[in-house]
Design goal:
Distance between the termini: 86 Å
Number of strands: 5
Largest sheet: 3 strands, antiparallel
Radius of gyration: 32 Å
Length: 485
């Protein structure tokens, strides 16, 4: 047991040191503008999102269930906090973050991650495609009403990202893109948008604090709806991102541990002045495509993030946004499942409808939970319809005409109740022998195949006549003989 633990620890932390260090650096650089943007969405100071990204990334590296997956402050959770911050202020956001973390821990202890079994492959494909579209759409503000120089820089960044690997793969091409475009921008004094334009970077370490709110039932009722929503959306996005990373790396993950880890990270983050977060598919894709595989990459992303905003803040603020936009465009292109477009004609129509509905739901609402829920519900409806077609009832009448055996093949559930009754009635009315069978349904337990036995009810005998059922007839004849004596 101890030997297995040591081997797992060594593999997850030190099995890919160089790749994890370099990919962690790339992710940290990409996290800075996004954390600032998510803070602005939530209506709080940029340092709230930056502190949250640092804290969540470092903690999830130790307690998470998916090595190599990046978690930080996200737009999915930020948009849920807008109303709370506007109506009640920052302190209530911190309290809601702590409570959301506690709810996630409870969900992990109850092993609710198993609900992922109900998410079909079509929903997963739609989820991935929708996120790829959202990632690209998030870059449009940086590409609209900007100088032509910005487009040239973005194009140059994409060229570096896609062509540099042909020269060498020793260093991640996104990191070379950031370094090269930053050097060109500073060297030539280009007047283009930079990271510093997104907001002021913090200059002090985060400190422990307790949210300054009244500890009473009224406060709980205020933050509870927001906390439940953040916990649910955060877990859903984290579990689906974990599944995607599983598929990309061909390695398993512990989903229930991930739930608990997300809860611990959010709870602790609320006590250092950070907002709630969850797994980030965009940053996770950057990490994997840059060579990151272990927990060290996630840990380094958080540490490098804090180091750069505190020590290298002046230099980081001069990174052109064009470099980061180029990286995110690369991520959106790599995330989108292009093969799914060709599969629309080859796959069953129901699978294609589920995939497209999930994409439309997520993109239209910008709400991951709603889009995935639409996909899951449609999958359930199509599955029930498909199973309902595989249903058959056959019957065999015994030689003496007193017993009819029914065999029901297929899944029997509420959708087939009426069909089951009609099938038994038709089979009974087609019975052989002198007496028409009108069965009383007596059904055993159902699996894929179930069998029910029915005793036939025959028309009542005439007064003084013999009952056609052997045992019943003998009993009645003996009773009549006793009365006659």
């Amino acid at each position: 047991m101890n030997r297995d633990f040591i081997d797992t620890f060594r593999t997850e932390w030190f099995g890919n040191i160089r790749g994890d260090l370099l990919s962690g650096l790339v992710v940290a650089l990409a996290l800075i503008p996004e954390a600032i943007a998510f803070s602005i969405i939530a209506g709080v100071d940029p340092k709230i999102g930056l502190y949250a990204s640092f804290s969540i990334a470092v903690l999830i590296a130790f307690v998470g269930g998916r090595p190599g997956m990046i978690s930080a402050a996200t737009a999915a959770t930020a948009v849920l906090m807008v109303t709370l911050v506007r109506d009640h202020g920052l302190q209530y956001l911190l309290a809601a973050t702590v409570l959301a973390g506690i709810i996630q821990i409870i969900a992990g202890m109850l092993k609710l991650a198993y609900v992922m079994r109900f998410v079909s492959k079509s929903v997963m494909t739609g989820f991935v495609n929708a996120l790829a579209i959202l990632i690209f759409m998030a870059q449009l503000p940086e590409l609209i009403n900007v100088p032509m120089l910005t487009y040239i820089m973005v194009a140059a960044g994409l060229a570096i990202i896609y062509l540099f690997p042909y020269a060498t793969k020793a260093v991640p091409s996104p990191l070379i893109c950031i370094i090269a475009l930053t050097a060109i921008s500073i060297g030539f004094g280009f007047d283009i948008r930079t990271v510093g334009d997104m907001g002021e970077l913090p200059s002090t370490l985060p400190i422990f604090l307790i949210p300054q709110i009244p500890f009473n039932l009224e406060t709980l009722m205020i933050i509870l709806p927001y906390s439940v929503a953040v916990a649910a959306v955060g877990l859903l996005e984290s579990l689906m991102t974990a599944q995607i990373v599983d598929d990309l790396t061909d390695t398993p993950s512990d989903k229930n541990r991930e739930c608990i880890g997300q809860g611990i990270a959010n709870t602790a983050t609320g006590f250092i002045g950070g907002m709630a977060g969850c797994a980030m598919i965009g940053q996770s894709m950057i990490n994997v495509k840059s060579g990151g595989r272990g927990r060290l990459s996630t840990f380094c992303a958080g540490v490098f993030l804090l180091f750069m905003i505190l020590v290298l803040g002046d230099l980081v603020s001069r990174i052109p946004m064009a470099a980061l936009v180029a990286i995110m465009i690369m991520v959106s292109i790599g995330t989108f499942s292009w093969s799914s477009l060709g599969n629309l004609r080859d796959h069953p129509r129901s699978s294609s409808i589920v995939m497209l509905a999930t994409v439309i739901g997520v993109v239209y609402t910008h709400n991951l939970a709603i889009g995935v829920l639409i996909g899951v519900l449609l999958s359930a409806v199509f599955f029930a319809w498909k199973i309902a077609q595989i249903f058959r009832i056959t019957s065999v009448l015994s030689e003496d005409g007193t017993m009819r055996t029914y065999t029901v093949e297929g899944q029997v559930f509420f959708r087939l109740g009426r069909g089951l009754q009609q099938g038994i009635r038709l089979q009974g009315s087609a019975g052989q022998g002198r007496h028409r069978c009108q069965p009383r349904a007596y059904l055993g337990h159902f699996q894929r195949r179930c069998t029910g036995h029915d005793r036939a009810e025959v028309p009542p005998r005439r007064r003084g006549g013999r009952d056609p059922r052997p045992e019943r007839g003998k009993r009645d004849n003996r009773r009549q003989a006793r009365h006659s004596r």
